[in-house]
Amino acid sequence: MNSGVSKSNVILLVVLLLSALYLVGLFDRGWVPHDEGALAQTAERVLKGEFPHRDFDDIYTGGLAFLHSLAFRVFGLRLLSLRLVLLIFSLAFVAAVYRIASRAVSPIISGFITLLSLAWSLPNYFAGLPSWYNLFLAVFGILAIFKHIETRKKYWLFIAGVLGGLSFLVKLTGLYYVAAGLLFLIYQEQLLASDTRDSTHSRAFALLTGAGLLIFGGLLVFLIYPYSDLMAILHFLVPGFTLIVFLLWSERKLGCGTDQTRWRRLAGLIIPFISGVILPVLLFIIPYLVTSSLDELFRGVFILPARRVRFTFYPLPPVSTLVAVLPLTLLLIVPFFKKYRRVKGYLLILVTVICGLLLVLGGKDMTYRVFLYSARPIIPLVTIIGCIFLARDAYREELNYMKRQRIFLLLTMAAVMSLIQFPHTQYIYFCYVAPLAILAILFLVADRKGSPRRLMVCFALCYLLFALIWLNRSSLQSGGMGYVRAENTVPLGIKRGGLRVTRPFAEIYRRLVSQIDLHSLPGDSIYASQDCPEVYFLSGRKNPTRTLFDFFDSDFQSNPRGRNTRILKMIEELKINLVVVHWHGDFSGWINHDYLKEIEARFPHRVDLEIFTIFWREVEDSEY
Predict the structure, then answer these.
(1) What is the pLDDT of residue 624?
(2) Most C-beta atoms within 10 A of its C-beta, which of 247, 254, 411, 523?
(3) Of 418, 435, 410, 386, whose CA–CA distance to 234 is shortest?
(4) Taking the complete model, does pTM exceed 0.90, yes or no?
């Protein structure tokens, strides 16, 4: 026993070392300027005593701004500090993934799965965005719930709930983790009910829990409906409704006991979990309560995100791309067929040859897209197959209660957390949930008799090598449409930077900051638009508005002329002498023509820097 534990720990240390070396080699490489700028500017404003939503429009819940402000305090006021915090959390995430995987397979395979999970996640966009923290906290939460399953100690549910509350404070999508946790607890109660000697079927309990599940389904439809097409339904509605149908079936099959007994049991599971969720949220809102600004917090957390959905929607790949997932589909369903064993040796050779050829050709656009297309629909697929497996096992009873709970927990987390991909469904958003899908597949394959484990290892190795050789080294700007080598090798060369970016970016932002330094003083207010919060942070200038992205302004679409008048009035009242125009914002689009004409009239001097133009006036010209 001790030698087994020792071997597991040694492999974990090796995996952590390999992960750290790999991440350190790329953690300062690449950026999306407005992402880094938004994260840094919110953190700096919190550092100066401002509060998200009360004093400025944070695009997330606000908790991450406090974490990043702490990073600035510890590591210094530069973009690299945010990456250092992410690196620390990343290694904790690696350890948690390993501990989860080791409950299903050997230490060596656990290490392999951990490296696969890492390769398909963080290296593809190593920036301190909240969705990574949603992933980390979900994995930590899964480990806590595993502990509860193993020990039946309810304080582990409380800890899992606290992690859910923290995830919500990072980003609103943390609620998906909470929803997945509640669905799991309903299933756990059903299993506990089936283990009793009471054969009574509680109708009231079944009706009310069924109503709750249907409400959850209704919320899914409400979320997806405005942007629904066949692929959106497949990716975002099918997994959730598969879970709902399975839980309704499971209630009919397993739900035994009186209403009172079952309500008491379910409450005993849910109350610790929800109490944990509420605790950090209550602590977070105290300052808003004291300053009578809860309404602003509510608007920023729940109202503004709806506006972000309208401006950031990105469609999924076409239906025809589903052909790419057929090989993996076959591997997951073959255990249901008895004749598979006769040909598994030939299948192994065939799959090995095909995977090798695809890997060699991974840099070709078509092959590159095939790998991504084959991975992206895996969550709906594994959710359906996993629920069918659990339903079949309810009759055969091959799995013990612990294994059933683990499988369902991972299926639920992967299925519900996959909503993080909505509405901006570029391939990088799949990377935020890919480790959950990998873990769900691992437990499903490990606990099914007759699973093609060697074939799955071959597939997994192929996907690991593809990620290491091609995916991790491709530019994010390729959008997943083909391999474009990332050339993030040039230091940004700005005091508040610390990152390595492409040469064009480095040259533009160096010139931009130097021009701002020439025509204004550190700490001065300037005005920059569209969608360029990084300008304020990198130059060390104040943002005189509460806005990070222009489209968040309530009058951006409804009254653009009035917005122009308001901004120009603010510029004159605050005696702002320098304005930066970003010609095209990624979300807000092209700069308003009428606004530009007014700026040109008021600011006689200008410098053009490709995507930016700097306008300024001397102090004696500031009266308009």
Answers:
(1) 44
(2) 411
(3) 418
(4) yes
